[in-house]
Amino acid sequence: MLVPDPKVVRQLLTRYATLRIAQAERQTAAVARELEDVTRRLCVTMGTAGVHDAIARADDLLARTRTDRRRSPEQDGESGLSLAV
After folding, report:
1. Are 9 and 45 spatial neighbours (Cβ–Cβ below 8 Å)?
2. DSSP one-letter string for 10-60
3. Which residues, other chains included, contact 77 with Cβ-Cβ below 8 Å and sequence gap of 6+?
4. Are 9 and 63 in contact (CB under 8 A)?
5. Average pLDDT, the chain
6. Tens digit of each residue's pLDDT (9 = 90 or more) over 56-66
7. Residue 38: Cβ-neighbour burial (10 angstroms; 0-12, 13-18, 19+)
8. What pLDDT, on the 0 to 100 scale, is given for residue 72?
9. Phi/psi zone of residue 26: left (φ > 0), alpha (ψ -120 to 50 degrees), beta?
10. 6: how many CB neighbours lie within 10 A of its CB?
11. Is there a contact between 10 and 3 (Cβ–Cβ < 8 Å)?
């Protein structure tokens, strides 16, 4: 099974949350269309039929990614140092 890129998942979740806030503040057709598009992409990316399941799977994926990186960055070929160093 393919695992989505955590960076892409994080971007989709951020965009989804931003659009939900924008929709709550002021509903417009443009925001509604973009929210529908991001919702669909999030569901497809996470392999779900509903946004609530997609968000739950995305949260789980990101939590696993954080846990895996804390355990052993060297296993992924990383030194654990920031790129800014």
Report:
1. yes
2. HHHHHHHHHHHHHHHH---HHHHHHHHHHHHHHHHHHT-SSHHHHHHHHHH
3. none
4. no
5. 87
6. 999 999 999 98
7. buried
8. 56
9. beta
10. 16
11. no
